[in-house]
Amino acid sequence: MKREIINGITYLEKKGLIKGTWGNLSIRVDNKVYITPSGVPYDILKEEDISTLDFETEKHIDGLKPSSEKALHLEIYKNFPEIKAVVHTHSLYASIYSALRKPVPCYIEDQAQIIGGDIPVAEYKLPGTLDLALEAVKKFKLGVYGILLANHGIVSIGRNLKEALIAAEIIEKSANIAYNVELMGGGHKLSEDDIKWMRNLYIASYSKNI
Length: 210
Description:
Layout lengths: L1 H13 L9 E6 L2 E4 L15 E4 L5 E3 L7 H10 L5 E5 L2 H9 L8 H7 L5 E2 L7 H11 L5 E4 L3 E6 L2 H23 L8 H13 L6
Parallel strand pairs: 6-7
Antiparallel strand pairs: 1-2, 1-5, 2-3, 3-4, 5-8, 7-8
Helix pairs in contact: 1-6, 2-5, 3-6, 4-6, 4-7
């Protein structure tokens, strides 16, 4: 699992979704949560640096000090047992929408399928706090796999790491598209019925290949 964390960070860096130490990633396996450590530049991150937490007690088992956003990851796992990976980034266009505190409209089909519709904004709370984690959980209860944190960044989730990584990438792509669509005078959002149909198809069928 620690190797998977490294691979996930490498993927996010290659996609330009994280810079330096800004962002974090975790995987839950049974009663353990593997999470990126606090303050370690990702280009020098080693497997032994990855922090391991006991899910039930939240105690640090091994590795370096866990990410300051560990509460965010743990609260998501507590509330959504089917979710096995969480990704947090500060990607550019999504962060613009988070600063505007404006949801990303659902203009494109992959956003409908993988995220589940408009990308909502969680109310602003200080980073690393339980309050921030609880606000994020509220938005994930809408049934989406990606949200914005006001004036902060994004969080994506998945039933496995690959799905959470793809969701993070789709959030940034969707924000980029929405930004440019709105610059050009606005577009046509997908209907709620069409979004629901595509999302159900993704969950029931297409996502099984991920």
